[in-house]
Amino acid sequence: MEGGNFVNPLTQKIGFIGGGNMAKAICEGIVSKGLVPYGQIHVSGPRIHNLTWWSERGCHATQENGSLVENADIVFISVKPHILHTAIEEIKKTHPIMHQSKLFVSILAGITLKQLEHVLSEFGGRIIRVMPNTPMTVGEGCTLISPHHSATQEDIYLVNQILSITGTCREIPENLINVAGALTSSGPAFIYMAIEALADGAVKMGLPRVLASELAAQMTLGAAKMARDTGKHTGRLKDEVCSPGGTTIQGVYALEKGGMRAAFMDAIENSTKKAAEMAGHK
Ligand SMILES: NC(=O)C1=CN([C@@H]2O[C@H](COP(=O)(O)OP(=O)(O)OC[C@H]3O[C@@H](n4cnc5c(N)ncnc54)[C@H](O)[C@@H]3O)[C@@H](O)[C@H]2O)C=CC1
Ligand SMILES: O=C(O)[C@@H]1CCC=N1
Fold first, then answer.
1. Is the C-beta atom of 278 inside 6 A of ligand 1?
2. Which region holds residue 56: left if phi is over 0, alpha if psi is between -120 and 50, else beta?
3. What confidence category does residue 282 fall into, taking pLDDT thresholds of 50, 70 and 90?
4. Same domain, 185 and 131
5. Is 222 marked as binding a ligand?
6. CB of 109 shorter than 6 A to ligand 2
7. Residue 2: is its pLDDT beyond 90?
8. Ligand 1 centroid vs 20 CA: distance in angstroms?
9. Within a domain: 116
10. Ligand 2 in contact with 143 (CB < 6 A)?
C-alpha cells in the first residue's frame, strides 16, 4: 500500500508499549500526516520521567503496561526483543483479564508470530508482525507486514492504513521478513554510514563539513529517487554517470578495490542471521 494525499482520520486509540526511537518515529509519522492527534496516542514505559517526549506533545503516558493495553484499541509492542516477556508479564500482573479483544502489532526484530502467539495467548488478541523503519518520521518509511491468522481483514487494512501513511507498507511472507527487514530496517544505518563516509571524503578534499553533509544527503535522496522511479537498472544509472576516462570511474575503481559491494552484502547477511538468532534459531 502507498501513502496517499487524502487522510481519513482514525478514531482508534493507538498505544505503544515502549516509547523509544521506533515508537517515536511511528508516532511522529502518523501525527504529522494528520491520521491521529497526539491526544489519541498512549505510551507506557518503566520510568515516567523518560516519557516526557510523549507527555510534552499531549500523548497519554503511563508506567503501567496493563493500563496502556486496556486503554488502547491497537497496541504496538515496541520494546527491545529481549524485554518482550517482562513487558507482557507486567500486563498480566495488573490486568490478567482484558475485557475487549485487542489488536497487537509487534515491531520486534526476529520474534516470530508463533512466539508472539504463545506470549500473548492469554489475551486472546489478534496479532500482526511488522518491520518498520525510522525514515517514517519524515514520511518515507518502508514497512513490512506479516499478519497472524488471528488478524481479521479489517485489522490488516487498518495497520496498512497506519503504516502506509508514512511511506510504503508491503505484505510479505513471514519467512522473508528477517532478510527483508535487514534491508529495510537496518538498511538506513548502512546508508547513513555511506552518506557520512562520502561527506568525510569531501571534507578530506577541502569541502566544509556542513556543506559536505548537506550535499551528500541531497545527492543520496536524488540517487534513491532515480533508482526507484526511472525504471532503469542501477547498473545502467551508474554507467550514465561514468564518462569514459572521466572522474567518476576513478571513484568506482576505489570502491571496488575497497570491497564495497561485498561489505554491503555481508552487512545484510549478518543482520539477517542476527534476527534469526534473536528468535532462538541459529
Ligand atoms: N530502531 C529501529 O530502527 C527499529 C527498531 N525495531 C524494533 O523496535 C523495537 C524497539 O527498538 P528501539 O525503539 O530502537 O529501542 P529503544 O531502546 O529506543 O526503545 C525501547 C523502549 O522500551 C522501553 N522499555 C524497556 N522496558 C520496558 C518495559 N518493561 N515495558 C515497557 N517499555 C519498556 C524503554 O524505556 C525504551 O523507551 C525493537 O524490538 C526493535 O527490534 C524495528 C525496526 C526498526
Ligand atoms: O538493530 C536492531 O536490532 C533494530 C531492528 C531493525 C533496526 N533496528
1. no
2. alpha
3. very low
4. no
5. no
6. yes
7. no
8. 5
9. yes
10. no
- Confidence check: pLDDT of 91 > 70: yes
- Is residue 163, in this structure, part of any structural domain at all? yes
**Within this chain, do residues 164 and 190 fall inside the same structural domain, yes or no?**
no
User: What residue numbers bound the domain in which 98 lies?
Assistant: 14-172
Per residue in 111-146, pLDDT (tens digit) is 999 999 999 988 888 999 999 999 999 999 999 999
Strand order in the sheet with 167-171: 60-62, 41-44, 14-17, 74-77, 103-106, 126-131, 141-147, 167-171
Q: Could you report the per-residue pLDDT of 29-60, keeping only the tens digit for each?
A: 999 999 999 999 999 999 988 899 999 999 99
**Contact 85 CB / ligand 1 (< 6 Å):** no
Q: Are residues 154 and 253 in the same domain?
A: no
Confidence (pTM): 0.95
Separation of alpha carbons 216 and 228, rounded Å: 18
Mean pLDDT for the chain?
95
* Residue 198 and residue 211 in contact, taking contact as beta carbons nearer than 8 Å: no
185 lines ligand 2 (CB under 6 A): yes
Pocket test for ligand 1, best of 16, 22, 184 (most atoms within 8 A of CB): 22
Are 190 and 87 in the same domain? no
Atom of ligand 1 nearest to the CA of 51: 37
What are the Cα distances from residue 227, in Å, to 84, 132, 182, 250?
37, 21, 19, 22
Determine the residue of 134, 136, 271 to mutate for testing ligand 2's pocket, defined as the one with the most ligand atoms within 8 A of the Cβ atom: 271
Residue 107 Cβ inside 6 Å of ligand 1? The answer reads yes
Q: Are 191 and 220 in contact (CB under 8 A)?
A: yes
